[in-house]
Amino acid sequence: MFIDHARIFVKAGDGGNGCMAFRREKFVPRGGPSGGDGGNGGNVYFRSSTQLNTLLPFKYQQHFQAGHGQHGSGNRRHGRNGEDLEIDVPVGTQVYDDSGQLFFDMDVPGKTELAAEGGKGGRGNAAFASSTNQAPRRCEPGAPGEERVFVLELKILADVGLIGYPNAGKSTLISVISSARPKIADYPFTTLTPNLGVVPYGEYRSFVVADIPGLIEGAHAGSGLGDQFLRHVERTRLLLHLVDVSDVGPADAAGALQAINRELELYNPDLLKKPQFVVATKIDAADDSKIEQLRLYCRRHQLIFYEISAITGKGIQELKDAMAAQLGITAD
Ligand SMILES: Nc1nc2c(ncn2[C@@H]2O[C@H](COP(=O)(O)OP(=O)(O)OP(=O)(O)O)[C@@H](O)[C@H]2O)c(=O)[nH]1
Ligand SMILES: [Mg+2]
Description:
Elements lengths: L4 E7 L32 E6 L7 H4 L2 E3 L19 E6 L2 E4 L5 E5 L5 E5 L30 E8 L5 E5 L5 H8 L17 E7 L3 E7 L26 E7 L8 H15 L2 H4 L2 E6 L6 H13 L3 E4 L8 H12 L5
Parallel strand pairs: 1-3, 2-4, 9-11, 9-12, 12-13, 13-14
Antiparallel strand pairs: 1-8, 2-7, 5-6, 5-8, 10-11
Bound molecules: guanosine-5'-triphosphate and magnesium ion (MG).
The site of magnesium ion has 5 residues, from helix 2.
């Protein structure tokens, strides 16, 4: 199951209380104050990990608590510090508070951020001894650990995002250019969660393509699967907009292109500022008038146009080269 949204509660450990005690020992008269300090509460951290690719673990656990500091004790014994807690999140997770303010962007592997700070341990009475107060009867309670609510949002990190109507051939394309094997079928909404594919380019280079579930008109208002998955293409550097120009595709190919672009704009106008290639798909079974209509439309609107068949492989290499060039990747 792919989960890309979660709300969690984190609590850092409380500091241990300081202790009030006096040294009492045979042959040691007036042993003096000996209450030790409480230990510090443990911190809670977020850590980005490449081992995870969904927020699914947070469906099962929403509460996270670091260890409490132990109380100080007699004989000047310091309480043990509480254990820190590290919460692993997938790379690409953004951490917000409830009001929507961004706190952390866990965009690179191994990043660690302090989510909640543990409370300081209280001082025991031994810490208050001075020349004028040799038997202090004072000690401090430990401070409570910080407590916070966070909203986690996963935005997968890919270089290229595939968008288009359901059935446009997005999953088929990713399956021929990468080793990803998403489900492919001739009905709409086959893909229900994003898929990532690594496209090898040349001997040593590669780029990452994300296939997201199909969009339809009204997605911004919740039609179809809605537009929630568009967040996963927000950080891509290039969009491939796939339009099915075969007999089974939309009757008005250019209209389909415009409708989806309108959904992008309604979701986030910045998406339209990204470089976008229009890709006519299924040209092996094409309706020539549809290709022509789309090509004309693109020429008129100065859109970059490609045509491919994932079945015969026609146009695939040109498209890969164009993607790599756009991303600034060279084959060697
Ligand atoms: N003839 C032909 N059929 C294709 C081509 N590419 C994909 N198809 C077919 O089109 C149908 C839909 O393909 P998918 O790749 O599942 O489409 P999608 O865009 O991922 O669809 P959703 O996941 O529902 O959004 C499948 O039956 C594919 O076999 C192509 O180049 N030529
Ligand atoms: Mg699909």
